[in-house]
Structures are given as C-alpha cells and as structure tokens.
Amino acid sequence: MADLKIIIKNKSDEVQQYLIFNDVPAFSQNAGKAWTNVWGCSPGVGAGHGSTTFGIHETYFAVCGMQQQPLATDLTVQTSDYETVKLGTEKTQATKVAMKIEDGGAVFDKHGATEFEKNGSFGIQTFEYDMTEYKYAFCGLGMKSPVPDQEDVVPVAVWQAKPNQQYQITPKRIYYISTGRYNAGRIVNVAELGTTATIDFTGRKETVATLVFNNDLSYDPVKYRFGQD
C-alpha cells in the first residue's frame, strides 16, 4: 500500500497524460549538477471527468549506472544497480552504500555498506577508479514507480559520479505534476514543461493530495486530506 497518494482530475476538454517528478534532493556540493528524471507517466485520462492516481512509497534507494554519453536533457537514464537505503533519524543511523566499477559497469559493493549519523539523509561513497575511462558513470536517488501495478525502481535525480567521493543525499517530500508524454527515467528540465502543480507533503500528516486540471491548462489549489484506507 502506498504511503501517499496524488489524485489528478482532468476537467479539460482533451484526453491528458500526466507526469510526476520528485523535487531534486538536497545533496552535498561535491555532487555537482543533479538532473531531474521523469518518475512516472499516467495512461491517457479521459476528458471532462477522468482521473488518475499516483501512489508514493516513501522507501528510498541509491541508484547507479553507466551511460554511453554525458547526462543531458532528453537522455533516458537506465540504472544498472540499486540498493535500499534508510534515512538517518535522531535514534538510528543512515545507510551509506559503496559504488564501484566492476566488469565495466557501475554497481554497489554488496559488502561495502556502512552507516553514518545524518538526520533525514543517506550516503553514497565511490571507490577509486579511472575517471577518464569511466567518465559516464552516475549515481543518485531512486524510488519505486508511482504508477499503479509497477514495482520498478526508477531514478528520480542523478549526477555524474566521481571516484573517491562521499555524497550525502536528503530526499524531499515535494512533487511536481505536469502534462506530457515521456518515459520514466528521461531527463527533463521541469521549468520548460509549461504549467506545473506543486504538491508539498513536508511536515504534513495528511496522506492524500487532490488537484484539478482545468481547460485553460491551470491547476486548482491542491487539497490535502487523510486517507480512508
């Protein structure tokens, strides 16, 4: 069962597909530029009275992989490995996973995970490797797909990995909705997608957010409530 739900009601005169993005997490400066990935895309939602739901599992993953070219807008990112991580709290330590290069690919060392003290965050440590040979290795944050009946772990924010680094990642409970037809994992510039709606669960106990998409391409203010199931 999802921890959070976002319900979108289509009041426009056309069938729409909706995209969801996770706000870029806070991260240590050594990560450089972080790229936003499409997290999920709904099937077509009927005009006038159709609706769709994204279900959010607040379980976080470290992801990594190797591309054939630099990270850039419109590139679809494919991860080669992921590891479940736990965020640090006042009482428990955070997970720090270890990324290495093995057989030409970026993977996590199954025996290299450690812990560190950082509230609300997790860590990724990279081992030493040849940056010139593996310059397109990347790592970042992943989450389970918010699309119903899909359990894949999808990258939501990635950056170019560098050797001998320790990255600190702090996920946010902020999400964006837009219309469009992009595959999950595709890097996008959210600012170029036109009108977007912001759903901010930060500090909220409510678990359901509902928004209405209108015929003038605007969104009504988000309404939050407690779930019934």
Topology record:
Elements: E1 4-10, E2 18-22, E3 26-27, E4 35-37, E5 40-41, E6 50-56, E7 60-66, E8 81-85, E9 94-102, E10 105-108, E11 114-116, E12 122-126, E13 137-144, E14 153-160, E15 166-170, E16 174-179, E17 187-188, E18 197-200, E19 208-213, E20 223-225
Parallel strand pairs: 1-19, 9-12
Antiparallel strand pairs: 1-6, 2-5, 2-16, 3-15, 4-14, 4-17, 7-8, 7-13, 9-10, 9-11, 12-15, 13-14, 16-18, 19-20
Descriptive account of the structure:
The protein is mostly beta strands. The protein is 0% helix and 44% strand. Strands 3, 9, 10, 11, 12 and 15 form a six-stranded mixed sheet that branches. It has a six-stranded antiparallel sheet with strand order 8-7-13-14-4-17, with no helix packed on it. Strand 13 and strand 14 form a beta hairpin. The chain is globular.
Question: Outline of this structure?
Answer:
The chain is mainly beta and 229 residues long. It has strands at 4-10, 18-22, 26-27, 35-37, 40-41, 50-56, 60-66, 81-85, 94-102, 105-108, 114-116, 122-126, 137-144, 153-160, 166-170, 174-179, 187-188, 197-200, 208-213, 223-225.
What is the ordering of alpha helices and beta strands? EEEEEEEEEEEEEEEEEEEE
Estimated radius of gyration: 18 Å
> What percentage of residues falls in helices of 4 or more residues?
under 10%
How many DSSP helices? 0
Mean pLDDT over the full residue set:
95
Terminal CA distance reads 9 Å
Quaternary structure state of the chains depicted:
single chain
Instruction: Tell me what portion of residues adopts beta-strand conformation.
Output: 35-45%
Largest sheet: 6 strands, mixed
Beta-strand segment tally: 20
Structural class: mainly beta
- What form results from the Cα inertia axes? globular
Low-confidence stretches: none
